[in-house]
Design a protein that fits this description.
By secondary structure, this protein is α/β, with parallel strands linked by helices. The protein is 32% helix and 15% strand. It has 4 domains: 1-55, Phosphorylase Kinase, domain 1, CATH 3.30.200; 60-135 and 354-436 and 452-484, Rossmann fold, CATH 3.40.50.740; 158-332 and 577-596, Dimethylsulfoxide Reductase, domain 2; 605-728, Barwin-like endoglucanases (Beta Barrel).
Length: 731
């Protein structure tokens, strides 16, 4: 038996795991790592099932090439040659804009995705870049970019020290947290209450998190921004503001929220005016407080305004960038050279004219670019760890559009609802055969921490690592061919990184010889050497601090991870707006407030659809793990019993929207407010080659969501507050 320690890669909680392997490399036990200073032994059902996922018999072990409608096994050289033969002619005939790239959610949980996605984007030279970000958190990136100057300067609630937490559209007891990296989120919330703090959850459902809270406030879907605007109005009206960071636009915010008095917004959002006023007073009076809004607020009609107002309240109550409030993590791999202030709309989509944000276009318009003829029509697609047929709005339209592509290649461990359209599938190795470092998630942690997990098992002879797969795709996309050396790409990236850092004014290695620095790096492969360079350049690195600086070698001496301390105020280090101030009223935000004001007079749909999370699931990619399917992890339509009676329903219902209809089983429950129904996302596996998933197929909720409905400033898809109708099943 061998015991290995590694970070769980299945959600944003970054829990430490203690994994026992037998002599053949099979997982016999997965438990929480009690010596991890961040997670302290916490584990959820997903992490406990990592061995089952790692050894899933339906997981692809080698490349597949589709010829004449049949899947054929291929060698890796054959597969990469097929990618070149399929991609190069499309680029030659139609130009680089005819190739699109889609990056799925697991890229944020993958060392390969974090390190090689950007080089792949640059190599493609296409503006048709899409990702799960515009089906999830893009409003937060846009609001933080406009307010602080950087889309990754995202404050998180200081959970371990706050005395009051107002949470909207989040259910961390099921999701384990999101845009807020906090292992054992449930334990941290209980500790908040045990030390005399107060937890208030705002949600259309009484979720497990809401049931734990001191107070649950029902809210009509999609109206979070109205509730938050009412709170801001009250803070100004009652003189409850206490700003302690440098800001610009304070009077403009006062004027912008003048029309959103609690009495005005109450009817639209379904929250009594007196509750809105009380929440504002409680936030202002609490010794420390934080407002935190997540996916339910992002995937709504006013997602960017909701995220903006979250941080406006944190600023107005004096809780931004102070202990117990909303703070910024200081990750070990952070190196930020001076950059231009953030902007969006540097280019627009060909068909609908939607603006770019963070270098990508909204996934809500991908089908338009696939189907609409003309110069720049997307004719080839690369997907990396994504299943947009199930995760993007109106996925059934995408399903049809993918069938018309000239060429498609997918990096994915499964033959699934999206990859079935590919001409070539390149499966990454097993989880335990890959190194792991959470570049993205540790930048959102509620405590500064770092940990690297080297591969626990060796690769089979001739089997490329996931990093090599993406490196070879990058080389093919750049025109260097399938036989180009991926190690040369790593060296090029390292050289560019070191030269940029050496040339940057104020850099800790300014003026030093990049060749000398390169000779200092260690690591078994290019990915590890790049990690070593990032650690050394980071705020705790040995090229920055005088004594005992961090390197990959030193981090490897701590297999349980290193605690780097509680969050510290650092707004001044991060601000890179043109003014050097927190911009409370950016023009793009000001313009969208008009749309929010107009919504006050709009009719309320009779029934609205929202999504929901499951503790034993993660989007569409854990439905083939037996221990995680069944029980409460079911694809049912949650509905208030009053609505069951009102519509004369029994057993099942026909749910119709502007884009489609589904007949789904009902789950009556008083935990959801009347006028709202909930269907989880990620399901819809009928006919799948994944045995367990096919046996628990469920229904694709994105047959009902509308790709024409987006949050305007960010282009994010709207999944919450979708108008639907309900009818009894007649046959």
């Amino acid at each position: 038996m061998t015991i290995v320690h590694r970070t769980c890669p299945l959600c944003e909680a970054v829990c430490g795991l203690r994994i026992t392997l037998d002599e053949a490399g099979h997982t016999t036990s997965v438990k929480g790592d009690p010596d991890d200073p961040f997670s302290k032994g916490f584990i959820c059902p997903k992490g406990a099932s990592l061995g089952k996922l790692d050894e899933d018999p339906d997981r692809l072990t080698g490349p597949l090439i589709r010829k004449n409608g049949e899947w054929l096994e291929a060698s890796w050289p054959e597969a990469f040659a097929a990618v070149e033969q399929g991609l190069a002619p499309v680029i030659e005939r139609h130009g680089r804009q005819s190739v699109a790239l889609y990056l799925g959610n697991p890229n944020a949980h993958s060392m390969a995705g974090a390190l090689y996605a950007a080089p792949l984007v640059r190599a493609l030279g296409s503006r048709n870049i899409y990702s799960a970000s515009t089906a999830d958190q893009m409003p937060k990136h846009v609001s933080c970019g406009l307010m602080f100057g950087h889309p990754l300067a995202i404050p998180v609630p200081d959970l371990d020290r706050t005395g009051y937490l107002l949470m909207l559209g989040a259910n961390p007891l099921e999701s384990n947290g999101s845009l807020c990296t906090a292992p054992d989120f449930p334990g941290r919330l209980k500790a908040l209450r045990n030390r005399g703090g107060r937890l208030v959850v705002v949600d259309p459902r009484r979720t497990r998190t809401a049931a734990l809270a001191d107070e649950h406030v029902f809210l009509r879907p999609g109206t979070d921004a109205l509730l938050l605007a009412g709170i801001v109005h009250t803070l100004f009206a009652e003189g409850l503001t206490s700003v302690n960071v440098p800001v610009n636009g304070l009077d403009e915010v006062r004027a912008l929220t003048a029309d959103f008095a609690p009495e005005t917004v109450a009817a639209r959002c379904g929250v009594p005016a007196e509750v809105i006023v009380r929440l504002a007073r409680e936030l202002a009076a609490a010794p420390t407080a934080a407002v935190y809004g997540r996916i339910g607020t992002c995937t709504a009609e006013f997602g960017t305004l909701a995220q903006w107002l979250v941080d406006v309240i944190n600023v107005l109550t004096g809780n931004l960038d102070r202990p117990g409030g909303a703070m910024f993590a200081k990750p070990a791999t952070e190196f930020r050279a001076r950059r231009k202030p953030y902007t969006t709309g540097r280019w627009r989509s060909r068909v609908r004219g939607l603006p770019e944000a963070n270098g990508e276009l909204p996934v809500a318009t991908l089908a338009d670019e696939l189907e609409t003829p003309g110069d720049g029509q997307v004719r080839a697609l690369i997907t990396v760890a994504g299943n947009p047929v199930l995760s993007a709005p109106n996925g059934t339209r995408l399903d049809r559009a993918f069938a018309g592509l000239d060429f498609m290649v997918s990096v994915d461990p499964y033959l699934n609802e999206t990859t079935r359209h590919a001409n070539v599938i390149l499966p990454p190795p097993r989880v335990l055969q890959s190194g792991h470092y959470d570049f993205t998630l540790l930048a959102l942690a509620v405590r500064d921490y770092t940990r690297y997990s080297p591969p626990a098992l060796p690769l089979e002879p001739g089997r490329p690592a996931e990093t090599e797969i993406l490196a070879r795709l990058t080389l093919i996309a750049s025109g260097q061919g399938a036989e180009a050396d991926p190690a040369a790409l790593d060296e090029l990236i390292l050289d560019q990184m070191l030269r940029k850092a050496a040339d940057a004014p104020g850099s800790p290695i300014n003026g030093r010889d990049p060749a000398e620095l390169r000779a200092m790096l260690t690591g078994a492969n290019g990915a590890e050497r790049r990690l070593d360079a990032m650690l050394r350049l980071g705020p705790y690195g040995d090229w920055v601090v005088e004594e005992d600086g961090l390197t990959l070698a030193k981090l490897s001496e701590h297999p349980h991870g290193l605690d780097l301390g509680a969050l510290r105020p650092r707004l001044g280090e991060l601000l890179c707006t043109a003014s050097g101030l927190v911009e409370l009223a950016p023009p793009a935000i000001v313009a969208d407030v008009v749309r929010l004001r107009d919504s006050l007079g709009s009719a309320v749909p009779e029934i609205m659809l929202i999504g929901r999370r499951h503790l034993r699931s993660n989007n569409s990619w854990l439905h083939n793990v037996g221990p995680l399917v069944g029980g409460t992890n079911r694809c049912t339509l949650q509905i208030n019993p009053a609505d069951v009676d009102r519509y004369g329903l029994a057993g099942h219902a026909v749910v119709r929207s502007a884009t489609g209809e589904l007949t789904v089983p009902l789950e009556p429950t008083d935990t959801i407010m009347p006028g709202v129904v909930s269907l989880p996302h990620g399901w819809g596996h009928a006919g799948s080659t994944q045995t367990i998933a096919a046996g628990h197929a469920g229904f694709n909720v994105n047959a009902l969501t509308d790709e024409s409905a987006i949050d305007v400033p960010s282009g994010n898809a709207v999944f919450n507050g979708v108008p639907v109708t309900l009818d009894p099943v007649t046959t």
